[in-house]
Design a protein that fits this description.
This protein is mainly α. It is built from 9 helices and 3 strands.
Length: 311
């Protein structure tokens, strides 16, 4: 988590340094693309602050109202970030773009816009490189996309997506700013703003999808479920694992609920001892599984083990 915070702080500093200068340069040059980039930087700055808030709140200790803790705060605030990128970042950029296409502004001095864009590429590019290096450490041999989809910590890839969108947006802004002055076609600047908005909307939809899945209770991987089953059914007191349900409370906190059929000749004490053994073994092999709830049940011979419930 310290590594994640480092990435967020670097991104926050980069966006803070260039947000104001983008607005100033955009006003001087009458550039919709630069204004869109300014909005983008402001939104990214807010997003980083919200991510830090989510990380902080997710570490709160369990209480009587939240006995499983506050881990899902991170998922909630990550979802809020995706909405902000969609509404403030993408929506305003698209609006600015359409407005400047329909009503092109008189082109101003582009010199300051080029200076700000160059500085922004340096800051955003540095932040992107740092985010990519840190995320690469977490991939564990997976492809980049698989690592993002399988990640249970949205803060690790949110900054990566934001910085990638920022660098792409800066490239578009620079290209179309040059073309609008070179060809004396002010509406091209509006097209740049529109394209930047579309990129932000696409990024927000991807982030919303991942955050929503985690917020709604995404469970552990199939291979983890199979290993848990092996641990349980290798216990001498177990007849069969009937149901296994799991959900991520936070990136480092998993809740697992098990319904287990124990051998009928066991006493209550024997069942309790078996539950303790199983819980200990599961937590030993999977440190992120913090909560293991086990319910004994009666095994039914007519239940097909191949269609048992896994959530």
């Amino acid at each position: 988590m310290a590594t994640v915070k480092k990435t967020i702080y670097i991104a926050l500093l980069a966006n803070l340094l260039i947000a104001v200068t983008k607005f100033i340069a955009g006003n001087i040059s009458n550039s919709a693309a630069m204004i869109a980039e300014g909005v983008h930087s402001v939104v990214d700055t807010i997003n980083q602050l919200l991510l830090l808030l989510g990380i902080s709140l997710s570490k709160k200790k369990p209480d009587k109202y939240h006995p499983l803790g506050y881990g899902k705060e991170l998922y909630f605030w990550s979802f809020v970030v995706s909405i902000l990128i969609f509404g403030l970042g993408g929506g305003l950029s698209v609006y600015q773009g359409i407005t400047h296409i329909l009503h092109p502004a008189v082109l101003g001095d582009a010199k300051w816009s080029y200076i700000v864009l160059a500085a922004s590429v340096v800051f955003e590019g540095t932040s992107l490189v740092v985010a990519a290096i840190e995320f690469n450490k977490l991939r564990e041999g997976q492809s980049w996309w698989d690592a993002i989809v399988n990640s249970k910590d949205p803060s690790t890839f949110l900054v990566l997506f934001e910085d990638s969108a920022a660098v792409a947006g800066l490239s578009i802004a620079a290209l179309f700013l040059y073309l609008s002055h070179r060809l004396n076609k002010p509406y091209l600047d509006g097209i740049a703003s529109l394209l930047i908005g579309i990129i932000l909307i696409l990024v927000s939809l991807i982030l919303a999808r991942e955050s929503r899945s985690l917020l709604m209770g995404e469970g552990v991987k199939t291979n983890t479920k199979h290993r848990i089953r092996q641990i349980i059914e290798s216990d001498k007191a177990v007849l069969n694992l009937m149901h296994l349900m799991s959900t991520y409370q936070s990136p480092k906190e998993i809740l697992v609920m098990l319904i287990i059929a124990f051998k009928p000749n066991l006493t209550t004490e024997g069942i309790n001892d078996a539950i303790d053994r199983i819980r200990t073994e599961i937590k030993k092999e999977f440190p992120n599984i913090r909560f293991v709830i086990i319910q004994p049940d009666v095994f039914e011979d007519n239940v097909d083990p191949n269609v048992q419930t896994y959530i």
